[in-house]
Amino acid sequence: MSLKGELRSVAVAALGRVALRRWVFLILGGALVTPFYLVVNTLGGLLVPDPGPVALMALQFGSFLASLPLVAGGAAVAARFVRPLEVAAVRALLTAEVPPTEGDGTGGTGTTGTTATTATATTAARGRTAAWAVLHLGVGTLVAGATLAVPPAATVLLFRPVDGGGWAWMSDVPAWAGPPAAAFLLAGLASWAWAGGRVLERAAPRLLGPSAAERLAAAERGRLRLAERNRLARELHDSVGHALSIVTLQAAAAGRVLDHDPAFARRALGAIEEAARGAMDELDHVLGLLREEDARRTPQPDLRDIERLAASARAVGTPVTLTTAGLDGVPAVVSREAYRIAQEGLTNALRHAPGRAVALTLAVDADASQLAVTVENPLPTRRPATRFRTADGGRGADGIAERVALLGGTASAGPTAATWRLHARLPLAPAHRAPLPDSAISQGDT
């Protein structure tokens, strides 16, 4: 880059729009410190009623330093109001990106989890707010003071050779040195303002943004929200998806026999009505969870409803052989998840092999430690007449894997000879674990 280009880059950095906005931000800091400074300076004037020039300068500088603890204390006490205002000013004038912080009004939502964590986060936020206020107002005061003093001094130095006048303290400055000295003072002021703005820009995210503990807490809350959304997605997929499969099969069958077997068509329409009503109940339950309305949460099906689930599949012409053993002592959470796994297995059988016999087995091991859920159906010999094009893209396997993982169990699904087999084993004393990897269950058609 040429010398001219380098000089232009320096000028833009020191006097461009970004630099000027930072300069304004610093001057605002100097203005904000004025009330604190005046209080301390007035008290100091009472203690030193008639200071000399040196003592006066010392009093002014000492008043400035003594006002900074007052600034820190005020910012700490009013941190709840100071932080949002400072963050807004930083984003607008410093063009610094400050992440939102939970509970301080800067854009975060939610809670920190426990009272102790909230108190710790609040204390840390107050301390960082106080440090930021001292930095902003302290540097801002120095820049604002220089901004008030340097331009008049530079003007006098610049025009002194013309009028021959000047301030008394400039009497020893040669006339020829006036313009260079004025340029030096102005360049120093611009450099000082640029440096102060850069310091504050770098410090803003650390002092006004979330701390490491707050970032970890926010990440944990995000993980919990995502887990809840995934759970609701599983509920919708398994419940409403099964009902839609039943409705689609019954509607297709009723349409084919409507003219020559109206009685069957009426039974199919009744099954459609029942399946749709059940889907509405399930949807109402999920919407209640989303809205956090306990009164609208309908009881969730479990293994006590497994016979009704098998009957719904039989109603669409799919022979279902149901075998159960030792289900009376199954814990409620395992019972609900086992029902959903069996429901997804039957849904897949209806979708991919309609009309083929399905064997559904739910049995507790001899040592009462695990519940085994098995769904088997023959592989279709040809493409089914009714094809189901679902919007989920095959999320059934993911849903089963997540349900099994949450209970600490295992699952597998895939073809064995001429049979498709879904097999899951669920501990009756489930341990909460991380979700299984994608390879934990064969994707296939499940």
UniProtKB/TrEMBL annotation:
Keywords of the record: ATP-binding, Kinase, Membrane, Nucleotide-binding, Phosphoprotein, Transferase, Transmembrane, Transmembrane helix, Two-component regulatory system
UniProt cross-references to Pfam families, sorted A to Z: HisKA_3
One MF annotation (Gene Ontology) recorded for this entry: kinase activity
EC number: 2.7.13.3
Domain of life: Bacteria
Gene3D superfamilies in UniProt: 1.20.5.1930, Histidine kinase-like ATPase, C-terminal domain
Membrane-spanning ranges: 23-48, 54-82, 134-159, 179-197
Signal transduction histidine kinase subgroup 3 dimerisation and phosphoacceptor domain mapped to chain residues: 228-294
Catalytic activity: ATP + protein L-histidine = ADP + protein N-phospho-L-histidine
InterPro entries named in the record: HATPase_C_sf, Sensor_HK_TwoCompSys, Sig_transdc_His_kin_sub3_dim/P
Protein name: histidine kinase
Taxonomic source organism: Catenulispora subtropica
